[in-house]
Amino acid sequence: MLSKRIIICLDVREGKTTKGVKFKGNIDIGDPVAMAEEYYRQGVDELVFYDITASSDKRDIIIDVVEDVAKKIFIPFSVGGGIRCLDDMHRVLNAGAEKISINTAAVQNPDLIYSGARTFGNQCIVLGMDVKRVNKTPAMPSGYEIYINGGRTPVGIDAVAWAKRAVDLGAGEICLNSIDADGTNAGYELVLTSLISSVVSIPVIASGGAGTPEHLRDLFRTSDSSAALIASMVHYQRYTVAQIKEYLSKEGVPVREFT
Amino acid sequence: MLTLCNLRDYLGCTGRGRFGTLFCRTTGTRKMTSAAYSNETAKNGMASIIDYGAGNLTSVARALEHIGVTCRITNQHKEILSSERVIFPGVGAAGKAMEVIRRENLDGVIREVIAQKKPFLGICLGAQVILGRSEEDNTPCLNIIPGTTRRFPDKGIKVPHMGWNDISVARRHPLLEGVDRRAQFYFVHSYYPAPEQEEDIIATTDYGDSFACVIGHDNVVATQFHLEKSGRNGLKMLENFCNWDGRV
């Protein structure tokens, strides 16, 4: 049976993870490569590196990180943040990433989804969606609106409509981030996740709000999302990947082996 | 590694024009790739990774390097023919892949390598285009193993089939030696191989229906899942391939 994926997100700024932690042993705090290796060892299914480097002249650093990671871990990983054109995509994929996540750039230039999928294959293109709950109106029938620029700018596009359009344009996967749930550690936005997951034919990764393994169980029980994105619950060492998987497995959620 | 850095510099902040050239698969590009990855210091016999412009070649090279196997990414006929074993990986579309394979006369080289009884490993797209035909762009393929590459039906499953899944072993094969039977592997695909002959199916996976995820015939073996991205079990199978003499 296809396992539900546990994906860890690492926010990287100028080559350092911003939620750095000190693992047992002697791993540098905030070194994304060392953190990736540790999570790989723990049995994570996939990783996402989100480049939040502000200045464009330091953007190349993420490529070095990707190359280093690709030499050491042998599971899929994707890279998002600051990817604006096919050339950017090519550099990241060539450095060893499996997939590219695009968010603001896709809203501003939807053709990027299409051309990215045509050039590299649908499976390479992950649409990142930052979504906020709003009042239901004729223009926003789902009651969920798309935001860009790191969740700061509303764009007046309905989340369901955008998800469907992205599928038509060739996105291979959607990473659905709830702005309302993000950072709360109070659980995923389950209504949103099952809504989006039920209207698209491609895999959906739920993001935002994970604080305990129960939150992941609730996610997989209430929606057919394919994967759960987690960050602080492992970065701050409240849980290991193995603990989360062991719990999910006991609760009847299909997960990949853990040791 | 210096070579990879050079590769990146080459690909660096190029304009669209140069970018376009890269994806036209000009000779320059391939030569560049070929030179860019060759870890000739390792001990085992040389493995060639066939460069036909498909993605994911360096991932396979990195995985081989990790397990200490010498490899090179190449489209040079002589190099491919003189290597001890050949890997045929790739992601992308069947139509485009076959176009490049034919244009570069790599189909003849592949047939020759197989006729020489050298161990031959297809991965993902490489497992699909060795069949007779692909439903993707209705593409005639290499027909090394009789069969068709089919698209997953739209019946309540998410396509692409993406993520970690089990395999059920149908028959023993050196590639699977010592691999935990509960092991899961990483899949990303919308099409799957369907060999005509049951004996060419080595393992299957359930997704909607059961499909062949490891196929093989004599010295040819191929996996639909990504060995290079399947953690230690994938690396173990790559290692098995590199220790295989091609006999079953």
Explain the overall architecture:
- The complex is a heterodimer of chains A (259) and B (248).
- Chain A has helices spanning 32-42, 60-72, 86-94, 104-108, 111-120, 159-169, 190-199, 213-222, 232-235, 241-250, and strands at residues 5-13, 16-17, 46-51, 77-80, 99-102, 125-133, 144-148, 153-158, 173-178, 204-207, 227-230.
- Chain A has a single domain (5-250), classed as Aldolase class I (TIM Barrel, Alpha-Beta Barrel), CATH 3.20.20.70.
- Chain A has an eight-stranded parallel β-barrel, surrounded by six helices.
- Chain A is of the alpha/beta class.
- In chain A, α8 packs across α10.
- Chain B has a single domain (37-242), classed as Rossmann fold (3-Layer(aba) Sandwich), CATH 3.40.50.
- In chain B, strands 2-1-3-4-14-13-12-9 form an eight-stranded mixed sheet.
- With 248 residues, chain B is an alpha/beta fold.
- The chains are: A alpha/beta (259), B alpha/beta (248).
- Chains A and B meet through α2 and α3 of A and α1, α2, α4, β8 and β10 of B.
- What's the number of helices of chain A? 10
Helix amount of chain B: 25-40%
Poorly predicted ranges of chain A (pLDDT <50, ≥5 residues)?
none
Instruction: Identify the strand order in the major beta sheet of chain A.
Output: 1-3-4-5-6-9-10-11
List keywords for this structure.
heterodimer; A: 259 residues; alpha/beta; TIM Barrel; eight-stranded parallel barrel; 11 strands; 23% strand; B: 248 residues; Rossmann fold; eight-stranded mixed β-sheet; four-stranded mixed β-sheet; 14 strands; globular
Outline the fold blueprint.
The complex is a heterodimer of chains A (259) and B (248).
Chain A: E1 5-13, E2 16-17, H1 32-42, E3 46-51, H2 60-72, E4 77-80, H3 86-94, E5 99-102, H4 104-108, H5 111-120, E6 125-133, E7 144-148, E8 153-158, H6 159-169, E9 173-178, H7 190-199, E10 204-207, H8 213-222, E11 227-230, H9 232-235, H10 241-250
Parallel strand pairs in A: 1-3, 1-11, 3-4, 4-5, 5-6, 6-9, 9-10, 10-11
Antiparallel strand pairs in A: 1-2, 6-7, 7-8
Chain B: H1 2-11, H2 16-23, H3 27-36, E1 47-50, H4 57-66, E2 71-74, H5 77-82, E3 85-88, H6 94-103, H7 106-115, E4 120-123, H8 125-128, E5 133-134, E6 139-140, E7 147-151, E8 161-166, E9 168-169, E10 184-189, E11 191-195, E12 201-207, E13 209-217, E14 220-223, H9 231-242
Parallel strand pairs in B: 1-2, 1-3, 3-4, 4-14, 5-7
Antiparallel strand pairs in B: 5-6, 7-11, 8-10, 9-12, 12-13, 13-14
Helix pairs in contact in B: 1-3
